[in-house]
Amino acid sequence: MNTASHRLTEQTQHIKQAALNLGFSLVGIAEAVPLEQEMVRFAEWLARGYHASMGYMERNQDKRHDVREILPGARSVIVVAQNYFKEQTSGNKEQLCAVPPAFGKISRYAWGDDYHDVIPPKLEALCLEIKRHQSDAATKVYTDTGALLEKQWAVRAGIGWQGKHSNVISRSFGSWFFLGVVITTAEFVYDSPMPDYCGTCNACMQACPTQAIVEPFVVDARKCIPFWTIETKPEVAIPTKIADNMDGWLFGCDTCQDVCPWNRFQQPTSEERFQSRFEETSGEQTNGKRKNSEVWLRLDDIEAMTQEQFSTTFRKSPIKRTKMAGLKRNAQALRRESEDC
Ligand code: B12
Ligand code: SF4
Ligand code: SF4
């Protein structure tokens, strides 16, 4: 190994260790080249209208195609995975129906603080570490914050493979993690993409309550519960076909990940800010038996909530995104489902 490649290897090891020291669970690095096949599939997804009303998905295709349109001279895309799993489980429709008054489930990613607040400062700290060794390096961070195909970069960086439910899965701890990305002009040694380990399984496709996984690896957001319960404005009514099949979800949906066999490797997160804020309301309503720490909220409480209570309860939480009116709209849709039980 010559001196230059030895230095590159050392810098790569150093930056990966720095990411782990910051509390990220996995880190991988891909070369900043254009995404070709990924963009063909992405264009097909858009053409079929699967992005629903998320008009922003249609914009900035040049940046999604080539990160050098975001950061001129970019050479590397560093991808981190931030585990958010906590020792709590979600319930199912039977449990929801069994117990009046109705409750609604909160998807696991929203039990703690908002990852949009937690992850970027850690990515910025990683950027400082890059600049400590390569002072002229430029950097740009993302976590669900822009026109970037984060899952595709995660696959390229060897973090995991894209499951048939379309989320990225790690062989070591399943899919309960967020992604964060640093695009940089610094050069590193690159990882290889992860092969597919779904095999013949299709548990997620079968379990999806609204048949949103329209073919392996392809999710139609128009049918996906998180789209309706998180992304739509409060004044938009949830269509009957979705409202009748919400599987008890008040905010987001984890059904396709709950059934995934790879999530038997789940491990508790070390990130304090992702611990659940809902301990006291969890786990009391599953057929009279206390099931350890499930996160269900009482629909009566949501419907009666004042703006002040909403702001206090969901301070720093991703649930703020729906606004109080959106959460009440979701609760009403769930009432409809539980009346059908
Ligand atoms: C838009 C969006 C949504 C939309 C659309 C979902 C979707 N699947 O795209 C909605 C609101 C529904 C959503 C829901 C959720 N989201 Co979201 N979302 C995003 C966002 C902003 C963009 C994703 C995107 O580009 N979609 C476009 C489509 C085309 O991409 P795709 O699904 O990867 O599609 C590819 C496949 O179909 C593939 N493909 C097609 N055919 C084939 C064939 C083969 C063989 C292969 C391999 C691939 C393949 O090609 C397409 C393009 O390359 C990202 C953040 C980001 N900027 O990347 C977060 C992100 C994907 N979301 C995330 C999360 C956590 C969720 C939820 C789990 C939240 C919840 N609990 O409710 C759900 C999961 C729902 C699901 N099953 O996908 C995480 C996923 C982390 C992970 N481990 O993968 C991300 C990365 C945010 C983050 N930074 O952590 N989300
Ligand atoms: S998040 Fe829920 S609605 Fe969306 S694909 Fe997964 S199981 Fe289906
Ligand atoms: S449930 Fe099965 S098919 Fe779906 S993502 Fe997990 S392993 Fe792949």
Helices and strands, in order, run as: HEHHEHEHEHEEEHEEHHEHEHHH
Indicate the radius of gyration in whole angstroms.
Answer: 21 Å
Largest sheet: 4 strands, antiparallel
Number of strands: 11
Contiguous helical run count: 13
The largest beta-sheet arranges its strands as: 1-2-7-4
Distance between the termini: 67 Å
User: Uncertain runs with pLDDT below 50, 5 residues or more?
Assistant: 89-94, 282-293
Beta-strand share of residues: 5-15%
**Percent in helix:** 25-40%
Bound molecules: cobalamin, iron/sulfur cluster
What structural class do you assign from the helix and strand content? alpha+beta
Shape: globular
What's the multimeric state? single chain
Q: What's the number of structural domains?
A: 2
Roughly what is the average pLDDT, rounded to an integer? 91
What would you say about this model in short?
The chain is α+β, with helices and mostly antiparallel strands. Helices cover 35% and strands 13% of the residues. α1 packs antiparallel against α5.
Overall description:
With 341 residues, the chain is of the alpha+beta class. It has 2 domains: 3-84 and 113-184, no CATH class; 93-112 and 199-267 and 275-340, no CATH class. The protein contains 13 helices and 11 strands. It has helices at residues 3-21, 37-47, 61-65, 93-98, 115-133, 150-156, 203-207, 225-231, 240-243, 255-258, 299-304, 307-313, 323-340; strands spanning 26-31, 76-83, 103-106, 139-142, 161-162, 168-169, 177-184, 213-215, 218-219, 249-251, 296-298. The chain has a 4-stranded antiparallel sheet, with helices on both faces. A 3-stranded mixed sheet has the order 10-3-11. A two-stranded antiparallel sheet has the order 5-6. Strand 8 (213-215) and strand 9 (218-219) form a beta hairpin. Helix 1 runs antiparallel to helix 5 (115-133). The relative contact order is 0.18. Mean pLDDT is 91; it is low at 89-94 and 282-293. Bound molecules: cobalamin and iron/sulfur cluster (2 copies). One iron/sulfur cluster binds at residues 165, 208, 210, 212-213, 219, 224-226, 253, 255-256. The site of one iron/sulfur cluster (SF4) has 12 residues, from helix 7.
